[in-house]
Design goal:
alpha+beta; 18 helices
Length: 470
Amino acid sequence: MSSPQELYPLVLLWVQGIDGLGHATALASLAHLVTALLVGQSLRPTALMRALLSSSPVPARQRYKRVERAWTRRWLSPAWLTPRLVRAALALVASDALGRPSAGLTHLALDSVRCGRWEIFTLGVVWHGRTLPVGCAVLPYPWPKGQFTPTVCALVKQVAEAWPTDRPVHLVADRAFPSLKLFRTLKEVEWGWTVRLRAKSWVCVGGKAQWVRELLDVGGVGGVGGVGGVGKGARLNGWMAQSAHYGSGKQAIPGLLVIGRGLTVLPRHQANEGSLRHRAEAFAKRQRHLASKHPGRAADASLATDRWVVLFSTHSTWSAAGASYRRRWTTEGTYRDAQSGWDGKHGWDLEPVVGRLKTAVEVERVVGLWALGTLLQSWIGHQTAQPTAPGVVQAVVGQWTTSGRLSVWARGRLALTEPSGLLKDWLGETLREGATRVAKAPPLTCPAARELAREGQGRPKPATAIRKAA
C-alpha cells in the first residue's frame, strides 16, 4: 500500500502538469488533498484528515480545519477545474477508432445524481466503461422552479468554452434532459447529440406534430398502423429511424428519430439463474415505482411506454445512434464508484459527505476533488490492463478476480491499496508517464481559465496555514 510520502511527489507532478502556470503553493495544497483521497479512498473528512501528509504529528482538530478550508478554495471550483480537467482528460482519452459508427468522436455523458438535499449534474468524458467528470453544476433539491434546464445549458456552455474546436463531440443523455433550449445550446456550441425522449415529448414527423407516445405500438394504439401514422415503423422486436423535428413551428430542431424495443440480448455472464432473478426483481421494483408515482389516479401510461426507447440524434443511422446512446450508462458505474463502490463498501462516500453540506459552493468543491481523484485512479487502473504491463503487474492483477471483470476505477483502487508492495516501482513509473502526457497537452485556451490563472489561485494566507499544519 502506497504511503502519502510516496504518492505526494507523483500527484504533485500531475497537478503541475494539469496547470503549470498556477501558484506553486496552491498546487502543492491541492496535491496534498488529492493524495489524501487516493490514500484514504474516501471523501469523508475523517479519512482525508488522517491521510493528510505532515512532517510531524498534528492534532486531529487542526487536520479537520485543513480539510474544511479546502471546501472554500477556488482551485476546486468548476470555473478553475473544468478547463484543466478537459485538457487532462483529452490528453489521456483518444477519439473513437476507425471502423466504428462514431469514428473520430469523443463522447460526453450528461447525467445527474441526487445526494441528500443536493442534485449534482455532471458532464464526463466516456472512457472504458466509466466517465471522467470534467464539469459539474449543483442545485438544491427540490429543484427551484425554472432552474433545471438553464443549469444544464450553462454546464454545457462551460465545458464547451474549454473544449478544443478540433475535437468533435457527441453528447449522450437520458430522457430527463431533452428540451428546445438544450438542443439549441448544443447546436450553438456545434456538438452532436443522442438524447432519449420521453413519451410526452412533442415531435413533428412527416409534417404532423404529435406526442412520442402516439408513435409507439402500445396496446394496439399508434405505431403499427395506428394513430401515429408511422405504419411499418415502430415495432416490438426491431428499430425504425426517420427524419423528424423536436418541437414544432419555426423553433423546431431537426434530427433523426429512432424508435424501438429490440430483443434483449444478455452477455453470457449475465444469463445465469442468479442474474436473471436479479433482473426480474429489479424490473418488478421499477414497475412498482412507476405505479406509485401518482397514487389515487388511473394507471400511469409510463407502465406501457417505459420499455420503449425513443432517441433523438444527429447521427444519420439508427445503429450509430444506438451505439452512442449505450455510452450513457457509463455514468451509472461512475456514480456507484463515488458512492458505495462495487459491493456497497468500497466507494468514496460521496452521498453521505455531500448530504451534510449546507452550501452549493462546498458541494462543488467536493465534486471537484472527486473528479480529480477519479482522473488519476482511472489512469492507473487503465494501465494495469495493458498487454505491455510488466509480468509482475499481470501476476498481481490476476489475483484480484477470477473473471477479470473490474472497472478501470476499481483496478486503480486495488493497485493503490495493494498490500504486497510489488507494484510500488511500477506505480511510480505509471504516474510519471501520465503526468508527462498531461503536461504535453496543448495549453489552456479558455479565457476564463487564463483570467483565474493571472489572479493567482494560492494566496499567502492558505500557504501559511498549510506550512503550520505540516
